[in-house]
Each structure stands twice: as structure tokens, then as C-alpha cells.
């Protein structure tokens, strides 16, 4: 990341998303005042002009701090806007992962351990379409370097879990988490509880415990083989009613219908919806694609069993 651009973009983010509205006029706008001076100096690559504008920015920010405008904002402040979270994630990534990111490509392609990420815009879609709320519990099964876990915790303020079997991404995730939380404090923004585990989600008892209380589960299963997807599906047996499962491959056929032969299968307690994502939403392709949101709904099976029983009586 270009340090000058980082400085420039950080000032804009702080003014737009962190400074209380009643103080924002002190910084001017794109036509006048401090904001105009910073933009102008940055665009013209005017080093002295930028130093002067940043000095005025710092003085104004210090005045607002002395007014106690940010007291308790870290604990009781407004939830972070998606644009701010994306900015903080990028800062944390650059400082903890990017210089060693080649190490993430050491894993064998087309295997269950292939590494891939989803970008922040798509995660925001996941949050909206899965109806994630602050009182919910979220878990990412195969969380990589932790981007999704961190974004959900900061954007929703819910308890957010990640479990990753591979050592290198897991190590990066913990380092990135420390940096991310530190920066959330710098921006004076609240964040939900974050828990990261280096473990096999198929074998970890703690994952089993969390799945029983989870409200939203994310599985980036795009590169998983059929056997692993089936083993993951078995983990969903104890999910509570109405839990949502977000995945890049569907666990249930879109046209699935319950009949006598499949009534006892796990697929029979899941409803599934197909969603589309746009270009550049995932790291493994810049093309458009699909993701799926499954919802645990045992009423479908209960209704089928009730009808079966009624038919037997008659």
C-alpha cells in the first residue's frame, strides 16, 4: 500500500465515518477547508501542502478529542460502515500478511486444502442476505487468514468464530486479528467478540459445541470434494431451527423434494436459495458466480411425516 495514499484515505475515512456529525463541518468539504486541502495536495503530489493540510487536520481532531466527542465510542459507538471495515481490513492485511502472502500458495491445488478468499463486498452481501444480527453467533468453517470472521465481528458486532486447519493461514489470521483489533480501537469503533482456532473443524469438540448454538455458518466449500462436503453436511444434524448456512456449493439440490426414500436424509431439513455474486468477488476467479443460503427448517419434514401417518391411517 502506498503510504501517502494510506494517509490520505485514512483522513477521509475518519472524517466521514468516525467524527460525530456535529463536528464534521470543521473539516470543510471537497470544495473548501481541510478536506479540500488534503485532496488537492494529494492529487498534485504536493509534499509540503499535504504536510500543512495534515497538520490542520490533526489540530482539528485534537480539539474534538478534547471535547470528549469520542468517549466510550469504542464500547458504545455506532457500528462501522462497510467501507470503513474494508479500509481497516486492508491496513491490517498489508501490515501482517501481504509481504508473506506467497506462503499461502504452497498448498496443493484442486485439493480440500486449497486456499481462497472472498472479498469484503461479497461478505457484506452474506451479512445482509443471511440476516445476521448483533445477538447472533457466526462461525466460518475453514476461515483462512480470518478476513470474514473479522469483518462480521466489526460490521455486525456479533460473536464471530473461525476455525482453520492449515498452519500458515491460521498463524496469519491470529497476527491479522491483533492488528485489526488495535486499529478498530484507533478508529474508536466497537467490535464483536472474535475467536480463532487452529483445528480440524470435523474433529474439534469446540466446533461441535458452537454449531449447536450458531445462527449463521459459512463454509467456503468451492474446492471441497464430494466426500468432504458430505462429512460437513453430517455436522449440521444438530444445528438449531432457522440456522442459516452460507456456502459456495449447495449441500441440497435446488429442486430437492422429500419422498419415502430420502425422508431420513439431512437434506430434508434444509431449504436452499441460490444467489449470484458479481465480478471480482472471490480470489480464484474474476468471473461472476453463485453462492447458496440454506436454512434449517424441520417443519418440512414434520409436515411430510404427518401426511405419511395420515395416509397409513386411511
Task: Describe, in plain words, how this protein is organized in 3D.
It is a single chain. This protein has 314 residues and is an alpha/beta fold. It folds into 2 domains: 3-71, no CATH class; 76-303, Rossmann fold (3-Layer(aba) Sandwich). Helices cover 46% and strands 13% of the residues. The chain has 12 helices and 7 strands. It has helices at residues 3-18, 21-24, 33-43, 47-66, 73-76, 82-96, 120-129, 147-156, 167-186, 205-213, 226-235, 299-313; strands at 137-141, 159-164, 194-198, 216-219, 244-247, 270-277, 289-296. It has a 7-stranded mixed beta sheet, sandwiched between helices. β1, α8 (147-156) and β2 (159-164) form a beta-alpha-beta unit. α1 runs antiparallel to α6. The radius of gyration is 23 Å and the shape is elongated. The termini are far apart.
Amino acid at each position: 500500500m502506498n503510504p501517502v495514499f494510506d494517509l490520505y484515505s485514512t483522513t477521509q475515512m475518519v472524517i466521514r465515518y468516525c467524527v460525530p456529525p456535529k463536528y464534521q463541518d470543521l473539516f470543510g468539504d471537497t470544495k473548501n477547508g481541510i478536506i479540500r486541502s488534503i485532496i488537492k495536495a494529494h492529487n498534485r503530489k504536493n509534499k509540503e501542502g499535504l504536510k500543512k493540510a495534515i497538520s490542520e487536520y490533526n489540530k482539528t481532531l485534537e480539539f474534538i478529542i478534547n471535547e470528549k466527542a469520542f468517549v466510550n465510542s469504542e464500547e458504545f459507538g455506532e457500528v462501522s460502515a462497510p467501507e470503513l471495515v474494508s479500509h481497516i481490513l486492508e491496513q491490517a492485511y498489508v501490515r501482517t500478511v501481504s509481504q508473506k502472502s506467497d506462503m499461502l500458495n504452497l498448498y496443493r491445488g484442486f485439493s480440500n486444502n486449497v486456499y481462497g478468499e472472498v472479498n469484503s463486498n461479497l461478505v457484506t452481501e452474506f451479512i445482509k442476505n443471511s440476516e445476521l444480527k448483533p445477538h447472533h453467533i457466526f462461525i466460518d468453517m475453514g476461515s483462512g487468514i480470518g478476513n470474514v470472521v473479522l469483518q462480521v465481528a466489526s460490521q455486525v458486532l456479533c460473536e464471530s468464530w473461525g476455525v482453520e486447519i492449515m498452519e500458515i493461514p491460521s498463524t496469519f489470521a491470529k497476527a491479522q486479528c491483533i492488528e485489526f483489533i488495535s486499529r478498530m480501537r484507533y478508529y474508536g469503533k466497537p467490535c464483536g467478540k472474535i475467536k480463532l482456532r487452529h483445528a480440524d473443524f470435523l474433529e474439534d469438540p469446540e466446533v461441535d459445541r458452537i454449531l449447536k448454538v450458531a445462527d449463521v455458518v459459512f463454509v467456503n466449500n468451492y474446492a471441497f470434494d464430494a466426500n468432504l462436503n458430505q462429512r460437513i453436511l453430517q455436522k449440521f444434524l444438530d444445528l438449531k431451527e432457522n440456522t442459516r448456512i452460507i456456502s459456495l456449493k449447495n449441500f441440497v439440490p435446488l429442486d430437492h423434494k422429500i419422498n419415502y426414500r430420502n425422508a431420513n436424509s439431512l437434506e430434508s431439513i434444509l431449504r436452499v436459495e441460490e444467489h449470484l455474486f458479481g465480478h471480482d468477488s472471490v480470489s480464484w476467479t474474476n468471473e461472476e458466480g453463485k453462492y447458496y443460503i440454506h436454512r434449517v427448517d424441520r417443519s418440512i419434514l414434520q409436515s411430510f411425516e404427518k401426511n405419511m401417518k395420515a395416509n397409513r391411517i386411511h
